[in-house]
Amino acid sequence: MSIVAIPEALQINTEQLPYVDNWGAPGLKFQLLMADVENAVFAVHIKFPPGIQLPPHHHTGAVHAYTLSGEWGYLEYPESWSKAGSYLYEPPGSAHTLKVADHNTEETSVFFVIHGAMLILDASGKVASVLDAASHIKDWAKALSEEGKPVPKIIVGGSAQHRQI
Ligand SMILES: [Fe+2]
Predict the structure, then answer these.
(1) What is the distance between the alpha carbons of residues 149 and 41, in angstroms, rounded to a whole number?
(2) Alpha-carbon distance values, 13 to 31, 132, 154, 157 (Å)
């Protein structure tokens, strides 16, 4: 009989986790909380400055978003912007353009769980870059280092192995 370890619940205090202060755009603050390459999922906390608009993106997997403060939405769905307390589900295959409300006076704080990859599109609709769990592990650590901040522990996957069962 084999013994299988019982997984442990893992917690991170986001108040003690550094932000990258300019993640792909000026003033966009970004924390990577969890990245599981094997299961193709990652979790992030983002603080958006008022009025920012990001390039359009396409999702290969589902996204769950919970808004903590501020107001934001997608240009493609002007009737359903998110405010504090909003939960947003983005189905696989969805594509849209993130915009933070111009009238915001505070940062817009959102927690995302993102499955699969985000394909960042250029002005002609072609894929300009691919962002996923693996790219975030590499890019977030690099960006923190470039801002002179220590790279903390985060929650990662990585249990695939040959094992007698
Ligand atoms: Fe999205």
Answers:
(1) 25
(2) 11, 23, 10, 19
Question: What single-letter DSSP state applies at residue 106?
Answer: S
- Show the tokens assigned to 110: 């959102």
Q: How far is the CA of 17 from the centre of ligand 1 (A)?
A: 24
Domains of the chain: 17-150 (2.60.120.10)
What's the CA-to-centroid distance between 105 and ligand 1, angstroms? 23
What distance in angstroms lies between residue 155's CA and the mean position of ligand 1's atoms?
22
Q: What is the DSSP letter of 161?
A: -
Please give the single-letter amino acid code of residue 114: I
Mean pLDDT over residues 17-28, rounded? 96
Residue 160 confidence (pLDDT): 80
- Ligand 1 centroid from CA 141, angstroms: 22
- Residue that the structure tokens 């985060």 belong to: 154
Reduced DSSP (H G I as helix, E B as strand, rest coil) percent helix, strand, coil of the chain, to 5: 10, 40, 50
- 95 alpha carbon to ligand 1 midpoint, in Å? 7
Q: 0.90 exceeded by the pTM?
A: yes
Distance 63 CA to ligand 1 centre (A): 7
Alpha helices in the chain (DSSP H): 133-146
